[in-house]
Amino acid sequence: MRDGSTLFSVGIFYGSSTCYTEIAAEKIAHEIEKTLKNKDLKENFSVSIFNTKETPLQKIEEFDCLILGISTWDFGEIQEDWLKQWHEIGNLKLDNKIVSLFGLGDQEGYGNWFLDAMGLLYNQLNQFVIHWCGFWPTDGYNFTSVLPITEDKQLFVGLALDDDSQYELTDQRIEKWSEQVVSEWLDILA
Ligand SMILES: Cc1cc2nc3c(=O)[nH]c(=O)nc-3n(C[C@H](O)[C@H](O)[C@H](O)COP(=O)(O)O)c2cc1C
Question: Ranges for the Flavodoxin-like domain (predicted)?
């Protein structure tokens, strides 16, 4: 890390139509702060959270570490608040940002399009040089979409959450993923 007094900024940005992604974002903020506290690093990081409905996307340039949350709607479509600002993404300065994604979807109802918006966001951000963190195993999910996963199908490109079909797993997934993300940040920032 740069030195003991350096403050790293974490920005959590989400778009959410019926509050599921919003609630997940709040839980992630809580778990990230808990993990930082357990590692005695709370003073080295600031964690802020923003709804893309009311926040210009340009704001994401201000943060070292980004956690971006998006739900998928209407057979593989991007959540509406992200969609409204989608055209801005190419104009942002995001090279060298440390980015993790999380997505909300419904694998039982929309298995062919499960978490497609998270995959689309990943592809859109890959025009920049990004330090990706928070890839997540596909084990334990049942779906056929290809956009949110790596070529070998072993990993999602971010945390996969499904409050429609696997609500009972959400909290433990968030807890484990937040610990994973913090330890990946520390490796990159070392
Ligand atoms: C009409 C409708 C269409 C949906 N389409 C998809 C889809 O294509 N893929 C997917 O993974 N989930 C789909 N979902 C599930 C939502 O993504 C899921 O309920 C999510 O938790 C909503 O999050 P939000 O309230 O934060 O927007 C759909 C849900 C509804 C009601």
Answer: 10-182
pTM, full prediction: 0.97
Residue 144, C-beta contacts closer than 8 angstroms, at least 6 positions apart: 111, 112, 114
pLDDT of residue 3 exceeding 90, the answer is no
What is the ipTM metric for this complex? 0.99
The tens digit of pLDDT for each residue in 30-80 reads 999 999 999 999 999 999 999 999 999 999 999 999 999 999 999 999 999
**Which residues, including other chains, have CB under 8 Å from residue 95's CB and lie 6 or more apart?**
128, 129, 130
First to last CA, the chain: 4
* Range(s) of the domain holding residue 55: 8-189
- Ligand 1 in reach of 79 Cβ (< 6 A): yes
Atom of ligand 1 nearest to the CA of 76: 8
Distance 44 CA to ligand 1 centre (A): 36
CATH at 173 = 3.40.50.360
